[in-house]
Specification:
Blueprint lengths: L2 H13 L4 H11 L9 H8 L3 H20 L2 H16 L3 E3 H9 L6 H13 L3 E3 L8 E3 L2 H21 L3 E2 H10 L14 H10 L3 E3 L4 E4 L10 H12 L3 E2 H10 L9 H10 L3 E5 L2 E4 L9 H10 L5 E2 H11 L4 H8 L5 E3 L4 E4 L2
Antiparallel strand pairs: 1-3, 2-3, 4-6, 5-6, 7-9, 8-9, 10-12, 11-12
Helix pairs in contact: 1-7, 2-4, 3-4, 4-7, 5-7, 11-12, 12-13, 14-15
Length: 352
């Protein structure tokens, strides 16, 4: 069956006995002429009637056409074809992917709009229109749709509880560990393929350029600016980097076509307490344990938190854990007799 040619004939056959105005309204609402759907308001304006009147005409006409479609063999063929595609995907598919399987293209065109029209008339398969939480998708029945939504919400709760991004493989493991139910009509346990489908359909889940999974609202999944991008690439590098290197990492990571300016990166990192300046132009993440402030500030903080005087070697090690600094710089700061006292045994404490 040539889907592209035959479906237009099927639609034309269904609409042949419909009044010109009603036929035009249905065609424009579903995009049967151009592939582009029109709103109730725009159609109403062209006829000088209210949007509510357009809605009433649409509802009445669809009800009449559904009766005709119920006995139309070609409509049944398209429903069977769509159901087969759905079952191959576990009973649920993103609308754009259904289009691609049907016509070879996922965009808005007459063939894809015609398929939606015929499936709407048959009412055997269930469409979930796009909303704040999901992209448009289809399910084989209402129970599978409800199960799909439930599984998606369960995955979101797992991530909320974990409170961090995870790798794709870890996400599958976490889902299975938390006994997240499967929506699949196959009856098999939740699989990586099921999760990948949910990731495509759900707007609340997402993955970043490093193939890590998390909530779409998290900056590590959808970085909103230079700071978020810097945090992501620096975390991935696992070690302090000069701000110029961070800018290069951002530009090489493929976030978007907008290049990060080196000086802009430096200026933004200074303003964000997620980053610690640990050396000349070198930045680390505060979550790595690095401390803000001058070397003297770090020394004071270390000695304040120590319940005993510390030897020079111990102080050196602790400061280097917190800052990227030369030993001579640490020694110079320890010579500040107004702040530090050197004991006869060579240990240091704060001056009282």
């Amino acid at each position: 069956m040539n889907n592209s040619v035959n479906i237009k004939k099927t639609v034309a056959d269904l609409l042949k006995n419909t009044s010109p105005r009603n036929k035009d309204i249905i065609s424009r609402r579903f995009g049967l002429k151009t592939g582009q759907k029109e709103t109730l308001e725009s159609i109403g304006a062209s006829y000088g009637i209210t949007r509510e009147r357009v809605r009433q005409i649409e509802e009445l006409t669809l009800s009449q056409l559904s009766q005709v479609a119920a006995s139309h063999p070609d409509v049944k063929n398209y429903v069977v074809l769509a159901r087969d595609i759905l079952n191959e995907h576990g009973g649920v598919i993103k609308e754009r992917d259904l289009f691609k399987s049907f016509s070879g293209g996922e965009g808005d065109n007459i063939n894809n709009s015609s398929l939606v029209f015929l499936l709407t008339l048959s009412n055997e398969l269930v469409r979930s229109p796009e909303n704040d939480d999901f992209n448009s998708f289809w399910a084989v029945n209402h129970a599978t749709l409800a199960s799909f939504v439930n599984t998606t919400n369960s995955l979101i709760k797992v991530l909320e509880k974990t409170a961090r991004v995870v790798s794709s493989s870890d996400f599958t493991f976490l889902a299975q560990k938390h006994d997240v139910p499967s929506f699949s009509t196959s009856g098999k346990p939740l699989s990586e393929a099921d999760i990948n489908l949910i990731m495509v359909v759900s707007k609340n889940l997402g993955s970043n350029i490093f193939n890590e999974v998390g909530l779409a609202s998290w900056s590590e999944i959808k970085p909103k600016g230079v700071r978020d991008k810097a945090f992501l690439v620096l975390k991935k590098s696992t070690k302090p980097q000069h701000f110029s290197s961070i800018a290069s990492l951002i530009n090489a990571s493929g976030f978007n076509n907008k290049k990060a300016n080196v000086q802009t990166v430096h200026n933004e990192l200074i303003k964000d307490n997620r980053f610690i300046l640990v050396g000349r132009g070198m930045y680390a993440l505060s979550e790595w344990g690095y401390r803000a402030g001058t070397v003297k500030d770090v020394l004071v903080d270390i000695l304040k938190n120590s319940n005993k005087p510390l030897a020079k070697a111990a102080l050196m090690a602790k400061v280097k854990d917190a800052r990227m600094v030369k030993e001579n710089t640490i020694l110079l700061n320890l010579q500040d007799s107004k702040t530090f006292t050197k004991n006869p045994d060579g240990t240091y404490n704060l001056k009282k």
